[in-house]
Design the sequence.
């Protein structure tokens, strides 16, 4: 066999385990071999390279065929695992919005004043002004939609300024795409200079405001956030939304810093594109979700497919899981 078709010791170990147990995941392979996931991924990448080569003799051809069969079985397993995880995420999101929908459809009296439905910008802004004027400890905000309208920033500035002057902690989470929007970036920089905190993520589930961990404001329809909102004071629901905010905050990147790259060289936005590709999203759908242009999505997709040596968009997502590029 030519040197290009030879496997190192790590690849041999992984190959032998896959022959015997083709349904193992990367994590299970790591446990079985007692290796860190990065070492397993490196060996797996070499096997993928070997499987893509065209051998010149029958012995090599037979071995490459066995490698390909093992990898196909392995990738099938990873595809199933990816789809399972995405289903869990979708289910969690559905539960949250179902809960909010039930609150929206139920008369406020049934919740003993713990929920209110407000319709129209005037009523919504009145509540926000009231909460901004009375909160004492913390304000947490999800602000999806990419760059924020100038009128929204102008309306928020005096409220945020007054809140910060009282020593209240203010945290905003925007989409990564606001880094390309001058007005929103300028506002975020001002907010940070005044003592607030701003981070960004690839995508957000809905617009959200939480005051003092006691009252949450969410839109009835996330697609038309300014039409009607629900003000929630139910401790269980507010706590769940606060937990969602905290988890998102932990994964977000501070605005003003270069977006961090993981061990595989991926930004959070690139990882989000891979996850959405694996779920079958089109370029247009991904662009809307991340609040970026379709051209940006296509450029990122092409780059990721090249880096993964993937032949299709969906295969890129599956290979990313197999190589441990996506979070469990």
Sequence:
């Amino acid at each position: 066999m030519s040197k290009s078709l030879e496997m190192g010791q790590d690849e041999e170990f992984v190959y032998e385990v896959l022959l015997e147990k083709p349904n193992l995941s990367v994590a299970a392979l790591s446990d079985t071999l007692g290796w860190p996931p990065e070492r397993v991924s490196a060996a797996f990448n070499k096997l993928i390279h070997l499987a893509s080569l065209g051998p010149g003799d029958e012995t090599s051809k037979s071995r490459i065929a066995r490698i390909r069969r093992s990898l196909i079985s392995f990738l099938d397993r990873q595809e199933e695992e990816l789809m399972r995880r995405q289903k869990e995420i979708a289910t969690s999101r559905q539960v949250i919005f179902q809960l909010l929908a039930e609150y929206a459809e139920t008369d406020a009296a049934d919740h003993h004043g713990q929920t209110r439905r407000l319709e129209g910008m005037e009523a919504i802004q009145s509540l926000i002004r009231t909460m901004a004027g009375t909160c004492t400890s913390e304000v947490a905000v999800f602000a999806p939609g990419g760059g924020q309208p100038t009128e929204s920033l102008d309306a928020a500035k005096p409220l945020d300024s007054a809140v910060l002057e009282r020593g209240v902690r203010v945290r905003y989470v925007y989409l990564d795409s606001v880094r390309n929007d001058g007005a929103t970036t300028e506002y975020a920089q001002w907010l940070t200079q005044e003592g607030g905190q701003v981070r960004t993520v690839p995508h957000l589930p809905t617009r959200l405001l939480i005051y003092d961990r006691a009252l949450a404001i969410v839109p009835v329809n996330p697609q038309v956030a300014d039409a009607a909102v629900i003000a929630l004071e139910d401790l269980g629901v507010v706590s769940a939304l606060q937990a969602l905010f905290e988890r998102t905050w932990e994964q977000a990147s501070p605005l003003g810093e270069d977006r961090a790259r993981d061990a595989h060289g991926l930004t959070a936005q690139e990882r989000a594109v891979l996850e959405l590709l694996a779920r079958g999203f089109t370029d247009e759908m991904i662009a809307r979700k991340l609040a970026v242009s379709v051209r940006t999505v296509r450029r990122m997709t092409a780059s990721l497919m090249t880096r993964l040596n993937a032949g299709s968009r969906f295969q890129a997502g599956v290979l990313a899981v197999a190589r441990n590029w996506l979070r469990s």
